[in-house]
Amino acid sequence: MTAPTVDVHAHVLLPAIEALVAGLPGHEAAKALDARRNGAEALAVSGPMVGERIPKLTDVAVRLAAMDQQGVDVQLVSPSPSHYHYWADEETAEQVYRLANETTAAHCAASPKRLRGLGLVPLQHPDLAVEALDDALGHGLLGVEISSHAPGRELSDPAYEPLWTRAEESGAVLFLHPFGCTLDERLDRWYLSNTVGQPTENAVALSHLIFSGVLDRHPGLKLIAAHGGGYLPTHIGRSDHAWSTRPDAGAGCAHLPSSYLKRLYFDSLVHDPHVLRELIRVAGADRVLLGSDFPFDMGADDPVAALRAARLSEADLDAVRGRNASALLNLTLA
């Protein structure tokens, strides 16, 4: 049977969340930080770019038409990372995740055979994370999207152990998608906040999960790293060398760091066929999934063509194009 073409990296915009947080204490400071991190030139481009894509981000009919044009059968839809709002207090954070889960589920329910969804958890309040994940699953979503860190907390923080435990037990999908980079104003020109910041945050977050032993304690986690895992997969040899030669680097995890890449999943959005081939080499063809970052400008307008450009074997092409995601997401093969 032929597997559907599945895009695991696609976003939905949820205006109700922004209406909810508008004017709340902390919101303006968070927006100011985001502005400093990105710089005025980037914001001047990003605003109109998002504006012209609002129909694709909010209208299911427009989304489906775009998917048809791309040759994509199924999207795994996650909220725009701008909706994380990790600055929010507990009361607001609960309102945000409940609204995000509800509205994302409603968006996907308009075409349940073609759209599957992910919700949100408030990483800034680890005590709420499990109930937020359960809320997402209760709405029929397949899991949740998380950033690379929360203020003052890395993903290696022991406070997240209950979240990893619940995600592993439930079979929930975790989609690791950074928002913002703590290099801050060093990246505030030439859109470095995204081109350098995103892959850096992916590499740091995955390294925390690996070196801290989270993946040893939770080998069944279904975690997809956006942007091909950032810089880590193509530079994993340096991590292996440190683990092998330095007792401080090797103290937290049981195996070579490179071995954990075969326990994770990665989207294919690396913008270079040679990098994609290397990602497949180090992680395995069964661990890479088609991803487009639909519909943003840093995504792939034709993700299947980008995949074909890597000149994979037919078996590997079929796996990455949709067979892997079909198995991970328990999709019925057509």
Automatic annotation (TrEMBL):
Record InterPro entries: ACMSD (IPR032465), Amidohydro-rel (IPR006680), Metal_Hydrolase (IPR032466)
EC number: 4.1.1.45
Coiled coil: none
Enzyme class (EC, first level): lyase
SUPFAM superfamilies: Metallo-dependent hydrolases
Name of the featured protein: Aminocarboxymuconate-semialdehyde decarboxylase
Lyase in keyword set: yes
The organism's place on the tree of life at top rank: Bacteria
PANTHER family: 2-AMINO-3-CARBOXYLMUCONATE-6-SEMIALDEHYDE DECARBOXYLASE, ISO-OROTATE DECARBOXYLASE (EUROFUNG)
